[in-house]
Amino acid sequence: MIRAPNHLGDLVMSLPALRQGMPEAVVVARGLASLLALASPDVEIIPIHRGAAGLAPAARRVRKGRYDRAILLTPSFSSALLFRMSGVSRIRGAATDRRASLLTERVPRPVIDALHRSSAYWLLATGEVPGSPPVPRLSVTPGLAARWRERLGRPDGRIIGIFPGGNASSRRWPTERYATVAMRLTGDGHTVVVFGGPAERDLTRRVALGRAIDCGGRTDLPLLAAALAACDILVTNDSGPMHLAAAVGTATVSLWGAGNPGATGPVGVEHRRLRRADLPCVPCVKNECPRHGAGFILPDAERECLALIEPADVLYAVREALA
């Protein structure tokens, strides 16, 4: 069996490895189970609650399957402990989070860190390093596509998605700039759809401003996949929906601050990445910007990498992609 990653973007990047590993079952965080079921309909999916409270129930569920080998695509100590508690005799994973003693097959962390995340998952699942990062692919069912078409109605022009959210503040472009981009693109005659989770409804409302279609908190993950597949392009932060859009075949314009696109960027040729790699602090890969005071270029150092990306840069990239 395979323990799948805990975050949307990582789960999408792991899809090639999950298919190549051919597991009998996949353990995944409960919130991602519906998307994994869409991607792997023929595999038993064991959804679990993350955290200490979910560890014992998950171990009992896994033990019933009498699995003798497990592959960890997660780096945590608790994921290795889960399979030890379940009686799995062979466990393969990266030697991270002080869990090496729980593993029977250890992949050194420097080897993992040197690869694109999609390649790292492939190595963990197969034992081989691919020649290039495997490209995640996800197909949307006709029923999901029809549900989204019914909700969207008849769009004007091209359909452009915007995802302005994300968990890490160091990876979020300013809200007012997203609003400017949405306003300009609707002014071009396009249909702009703003996506976000249930906790991001205020954010999506402030970006949509009554002109774009506000879908904040109104799509589960399978329907979000269908919605992104219907877009001509997605403008997005470095985020899980960025990877989901790429997997369903939608081009992206992504805005990069703290993240490293060489390690976690969307795979494929239809993706434009906007970033200020000329700053000496980029990429810091921190969830919160550690800088304060005067910046290298701007008066304010905090999130300077994102502040240097202008709406005009994003609009040019979108219009170039559409042309």
In short:
This protein has 323 residues and is of the alpha/beta class.
List keywords for this structure.
six-stranded parallel sheet, 2 domains, alpha/beta, Rossmann fold, about 40% helix, about 325 residues
Average pLDDT confidence is 95
Number of domains: 2
CATH topology of the largest domain: Rossmann fold
Classification by helices and strands:
alpha/beta
Could you please describe the fold and organization of this structure?
This protein is an alpha/beta fold. The protein has two domains: 2-126, 3-Layer(aba) Sandwich (Rossmann fold), CATH 3.40.50; 142-322, Rossmann fold (3-Layer(aba) Sandwich), CATH 3.40.50. The protein is built from 14 helices and twelve strands. The protein has a six-stranded parallel β-sheet, sandwiched between helices. A six-stranded parallel β-sheet has the order 9-8-7-10-11-12, with helices on both faces. The termini are far apart. The mean pLDDT is 95.
In terms of topology, how is this protein built?
Elements: E1 2-3, H1 8-21, E2 25-29, H2 33-39, E3 44-48, H3 52-64, E4 69-72, H4 77-85, E5 90-94, E6 105-107, H5 109-113, H6 117-126, H7 142-152, E7 159-163, H8 175-187, E8 191-196, H9 201-208, E9 213-216, H10 221-230, E10 233-237, H11 240-247, E11 251-255, H12 261-264, E12 271-274, H13 304-307, H14 311-322
Parallel strand pairs: 1-2, 1-4, 2-3, 4-5, 5-6, 7-8, 7-10, 8-9, 10-11, 11-12
Helix pairs in contact: 1-6, 1-11, 3-4, 7-10, 8-9, 8-14
